[in-house]
Amino acid sequence: MVSQGSITAMIVQVILGIIIPLALVLYFRKTSGISYRAIGVGILVFFIFSQVLEKGLHYYVLSVNKSTVDLFKNPWLFAIYGGLAAGIFEEVGRWLGFSLLLKNRHERKDGISLGIGHGGIEAFLIAIVSGVQGIVFATMINAGKLEQSLGAGLPPEQVAQLKERLIHTAQSEFWLGGLERIPAIFMQIAFSLIVLYGVRYRKSMYLLYAILLHALVDFAPAMYQAHFLSLWVAEIVIWVLGIGAIVVIVKSKKWFG
User: Fold this and answer.
1) DSSP class of residue 2?
2) Would the CA dihedral through 65, 66, 71, 73 be positive or negative?
3) Which stretches are transmembrane (predicted)?
4) Which of 67, 90, 95, 165 lies in the 20 to 30 Å Cα band around 133?
5) What are the b/e assignments for 119-156, b being 16+ CB within 10 Å?
6) How far apart are CA 192 and CA 183, in angstroms?
């Protein structure tokens, strides 16, 4: 049986994935007059650069090319690769979004808007894909219908692995995964503001700063995925960096003054 606490955590994850982006849109729309066009560009950048290009590279490097598959079994190299890949693709995507699609929209509110679009759709998709799917599978397990429902589409060993993971994963992991969306979306806004500052004032070094900061943010989760860091340590790092992102967002008022 999947515990009710775990299912509740998944429900909270879905709620947060929907409410946080909407709340930020409403708040910044009222206080800063953010741009729906820039939000749309943020969503577009996320899909093209993160979901298509970055994932395409990961598939080749981590699944197809035997040399790199073996190389990145080293947790340190895996974490460095994962962090830099995310940083390069997503921050270059932001730079191009501001440079090509938002040529005349380089105010602070446009950076916030693109960040909300990018981080908001990420939170929404994680909530839907991970949260809703997890709730459905957990309900099937508790009703004794998982094998019957998935048996025709998945090999028995995969169904068994899915069942074991949901039953034996600690409740805390589900709670942490859901709450992680809060600092994550603020970091996406902060990255967008850093990149926009570089575009607006023609300071390309700020693209490099954003890439390195993004790589730093993704380094801890990658080390967790490589079973080198505990989940709690990784989450503490994410929350500390999330607080730093809020500081950046507040201080950015002076950058674009």
Assistant:
1) -
2) positive
3) 6-27, 34-53, 76-102, 123-141, 182-199, 206-224, 230-250
4) 90
5) bbbbbbebbeebbeebbebbebbbeeebeeebeeeeee
6) 14
The tokens for 82 are 């994962």
Give the model's pLDDT for residue 152: 67
d(CA 58, CA 218) in angstroms, rounded, equals 14
Q: Please give the C-alpha separations between residue 141 and each of 27, 145, 157, 173, 178, in angstroms, as whole numbers.
A: 40, 6, 15, 19, 21
pLDDT of amino acid 166: 85
R_g (Cα) of the chain, nearest Å? 19
Phi, psi (deg, nearest 5) at residue 187: -65, -35
What are the Cα distances from residue 208, in Å, to 137, 198, 214, 240?
Answer: 41, 10, 10, 21
Q: How far apart are CA 38 and CA 202, in angstroms?
A: 19
Calpha distance 154→184 (Å, rounded)? 32
Residue in the structure block whose two tokens are 């899915």:
162
Q: What is the pTM of this model?
A: 0.92
Q: Which residue has the tokens 């570089």?
A: 198
Two structure tokens written together for 114: 């693109």
Q: How many CA atoms lie within 13 A of 230 on its CB side?
A: 5
